[in-house]
Amino acid sequence: MNTKKIGFIGGGNMATSLIKGLIASGHAPQQIWVSDTNQATLTQHAEQLQVNVSTDNDAVVAEVDVVVLAVKPQILREVAQSIASLVEQRKVLVVSIAAGISQASLSRWLGDEAAIVRCMPNTPALVLTGATALHANDKVSAQQKDLAENILRAVGLALWVNDEAQLDAVTAVSGSGPAYYFLMMEAMEKAALELGLDEHSARLLIQQTALGAAKIALESSESPTILRERVTSPGGTTQKAIETFQQNGFEALVGKALHAARDRSIEMSKQLGAD
Question: Most buried among 46, 94, 174, 243, using CB within 10 Å?
Fold first, then answer.
């Protein structure tokens, strides 16, 4: 992948994280291009990351093997249509990290022959611990799939889904997922203060506990059910807390929330992709 030239249209937080991850994994900054309308953003990228910058999207597309569309979904149609002829001419791979924009919409804007990979990353990519799902259309070669996967792996886990519709479920699970954990931490912190802990101690204990639980789950081949049962002593404090959660509909509420997020993802995709 180090010989491939990668261009980013949009130099915001997610693009910056991907660029930093690529450089950290050995990709030469000289092989990376960024375009943005904000000159201050470009200056920062050039000075801090030593990458090539431009305010001209076409100038970036003309140089690279893969274009990462990292602009807001609301302006993606305009951006895609403006580079469509050059994408078709150069046969570059297009990777979209814009939430809610379907491959059908991207193909309509970029051209039917465009090789497109649609991704659903999440915000932990900002600290190189992201979780990203990818789906490729039938124009993407095996080599291009490897390239797209390597780009997203620079900021964490990357996996493929067989059906693009699954990206709506991914949005509900991992795309929106960090906020669910923050809500849980927020509720635990509030309860900890009521139980007499000071804010600093409560927050550190909760954050480290969340990190530790995630690390155990990642390093274990066992299901969350088995892991939970192992740390739940019969008749103990953990069992009492778990029973309270379950008796008050915790699991059903989580399911309802994820279904609502999935449904909203589908709705937004229709809205954002409409002509």
Answer: 94
- Quote the tokens at residue 91: 């046969």
Q: How far is CA 227 from CA 51, 207, 214, 275, in A?
A: 45, 19, 11, 48
Task: Please report the domains of the chain, with CATH numbers, ordered by start residue.
Answer: 6-170 (3.40.50.720), 175-269 (1.10.3730.10)
13 CB contacts (<8 Å, ≥6 apart)? 126
C-alpha span between 122 and 97 (Å, rounded)? 10
Q: Which residues of 155-188 are buried (b: 16+ CB within 10 A; e: fewer)?
A: bbbbeebeeeebbbbbbbbbbbbeeeeeeebeeb
Report which residue type is found at 36: D
Length of the chain: 275
Beta strands in the chain (DSSP E): 6-9, 32-35, 52-54, 66-69, 93-96, 115-120, 130-136, 156-160
Q: Give the rounded distance of the alpha carbon of 234 from its chain centre.
A: 39
Rounded (10°) CA dihedral 86, 95, 262, 126: -130
The answer to whether the beta carbons of residues 208 and 185 sit under 8 Å apart is: no
